[in-house]
Amino acid sequence: MSARRSLVWLGLTPEPEQELPAAVAALRSPAEDRPPAALVVAERHRVERLVLRGTQRDWLRYLREVTDLVVEAAAETAPADPRPALVAGEVVLDHHRMLIGLPGSGYVRTATQRRDLERALVRLRARDYTSLFGHPDPRSTA
Fold first, then answer.
1. Residue 64: strand, helix, or coil
2. CA 120/CA 96 separation, integer angstroms
3. What pTM value is reported for the model?
């Protein structure tokens, strides 16, 4: 590790490391009840490598991939389980909001992702409500 490598991004929150591997594995796997254990393990190892050996740029690139998966899940018309996308979307959105407190341009660079995640989460929450209660949430504006 070079002395020039900034590690400040590692102190944001442990939730992405804890929550994303299983949620992302579910989003990457074919429509099944649960993703294969090997896929969850592979995703966990990928996150570990990014945290231990990556840079903030590498980490944000990974979170961009996760954002794309969440947005794609929200756009699907097939009634898939929205929970993995909801978990991943909430975690990444929270992470990106916290970037405002860090030095550098991370917060500005993730502005489009925040907007896309906010929109996707509205759709996913509406889908989750409908799957739980059988009708759209009357309070929803989606």
1. helix
2. 15
3. 0.82
